[in-house]
Amino acid sequence: EPEVTQTPSHQVTQMGQEVILRCVPISNHLYFYWYRQILGQKVEFLVSFYNNEISEKSEIFDDQFSVERPDGSNFTLKIRSTKLEDSAMYFCARQDSNSPLHFGNGTRLTVT
Amino acid sequence: AQSVTQLDSHVSVSEGTPVLLRCNYSSSYSPSLFWYVQHPNKGLQLLLKYTSAATLVKGINGFEAEFKKSETSFHLTKPSAHMSDAAEYFCVVSPPPRDSNYQLIWGAGTKLIIKP
Question: Is A12 on the interface with B (CB under 8 A)?
Answer without folding.
Answer: no
